[in-house]
Design brief:
2 copies of one chain form a homodimer. By secondary structure, chain A is α/β, with parallel strands linked by helices. Chain A contains 16 helices and 9 strands. Chain A has a single domain, classed as TIM Barrel (Alpha-Beta Barrel). The first copy, chain A, is 48% helix and 11% strand. The interface between A and B is medium-sized, with 32 and 32 residues.
Amino acid sequence: MNLKNDLILRAANGKKIERTPVWLMRQAGRILPEYRKIRNSLSGFKELVETPHLAAEVTIQPVDILGVDAAIIFSDILVIPEAMGLQYEMIEKKGPYFPKTIESQANIDSLNNSDLEDHLSYVFEAIKITKNELSQRVPLIGFAGAPWTIFAYMIEGQGSKTFSKAKSFLYREPELAHMLLEKITISTIEYLKLQIKAGVDLVQIFDSWAGILSPEYYNEFGMKYVHKICDKINQVPLTVFSKGAFFALQSMKNLNCNTIGLDWTMDINQAINLFDNTKTLQGNLDPCVLYGDFNLIEKKTKEMLNNFAGNRHIANLGHGVYPDTNPEKVKCFIESVKSNN
Amino acid sequence: MNLKNDLILRAANGKKIERTPVWLMRQAGRILPEYRKIRNSLSGFKELVETPHLAAEVTIQPVDILGVDAAIIFSDILVIPEAMGLQYEMIEKKGPYFPKTIESQANIDSLNNSDLEDHLSYVFEAIKITKNELSQRVPLIGFAGAPWTIFAYMIEGQGSKTFSKAKSFLYREPELAHMLLEKITISTIEYLKLQIKAGVDLVQIFDSWAGILSPEYYNEFGMKYVHKICDKINQVPLTVFSKGAFFALQSMKNLNCNTIGLDWTMDINQAINLFDNTKTLQGNLDPCVLYGDFNLIEKKTKEMLNNFAGNRHIANLGHGVYPDTNPEKVKCFIESVKSNN
């Protein structure tokens, strides 16, 4: 059976489309009361991630309720360090916390690169349930964190404004850093392949902390490993979203991927000129536009679409939708895209 | 009496210099044990800001201890909202907090644009004491926050990863936003003029939250007011540091200022090509380099100096020095600059 709506796959492949496809990063989550109801019945965020039929349910909610052109599997980028042996907790209103962090070669050596299929079986099970329940209505997106971003959490142990502990590790221990990044990369490639085997139709790599490195260091410790992943994933279209890494856009032209995510600080015309339709661009409305009134949301969405007009484009925000956004405003964004053509 | 070391002023004015001058943002502060000793004897950060002879003492410490080519008056960008009637607290390990924030036109109307000389007399007194005690050894830098950054705190009420409350105010209430930004701009111009009258030799505008706006919105709500300030301050050299605003560098060519601050994500060669020695560039070593060993600090500092070689340049980090940096590492950075010529 073929997908009923494959707009996003055609857009990613640079094929002809009737209208611009649209989805939102973090569309499955706190913005929806239906999500919060399920989430509140559980012990925490991780129970939801690790319970396949519930993860599948919240994955599908935005397709049913918001009318997006793709689902993205409900999960967390930090399942990879956990599968490698570094447990984490998700602390309410604070974010992730790793009781143990990576400090030495011994710590790196003790990380596990095997049994990923077993350790993360709940993700692959959630993907299978979701694919079944979606009944080919829209594609399902899989994802993973980029190695540098995963590395940053494994060293820092938690979120940070500066990630100075993780960054200083690059300056103090560049060889160990490459060793750890290599290990993360191997797991990430296998993880994405297993997601594809379980049924996802497209994958996205999130490099959430790309923008805190200098151009030279992001090239050496970030982009290098994103390249390796892209070269190994050819089965489905691949999107790379390196938030804040405006300085790396030029080098991203050479990535073996279909789509480049743009955050809202990136100038659309410059990106269009740079990529010259060799890649699809995804984004990039400022998430804060959705705090405006309906007229403003429609106006700003149409302006963005006009800026991308005639070029390969998947509509999205320039970052994950903020959790306190009114779902009606999200619908307005989606409808503004859908009604534009 | 003339300044014994006026390197930074000559560099800002594009005049001939024997070697590149160097100072650090946040050089007066927690990195120095001598600072912490004074700070710990007081009730809090604000008592230090508001006690002129102590503010002067910590301002001069980095000149004596680290050997920088300029002092920067120890103060806080948030003294301006406070002088306008919006009190704030500095909460240990958390940052600034405003019990009342701006939500309406009535709130804006109630802000005060007069008596700045009286309200902020402690700053001008600290400047006079510092100038006297410096005995013309090095120039003294004054500063203020850029209107958008001050606005962000006045609306948000505290630090934030996204400043979504402040940003959404721009989208929801653009006219009120301009009204408030205009008021902040008037106070900021007067504040800088009063600092100059009290004796500072150079002023810097910090737009710490420039990088979270879209290019369009930063142009309309940020850069517009920086322009107004630059056009009114002609008595001493002026530096503009818009952190993260890579997208605005092109338009900053037209600013009526001497120096542009670069953060560490900005490519030096691109900036050199863009400004073509029409302005002095300041920066831009990644503050995390100072967590490396002495060899690395020297190597990275020399690399940076080589990248700027032959162009108008003031050496600095690309952001304020991080509070847990070893002062010996800071000295290594400074000495690496001084010994380069």
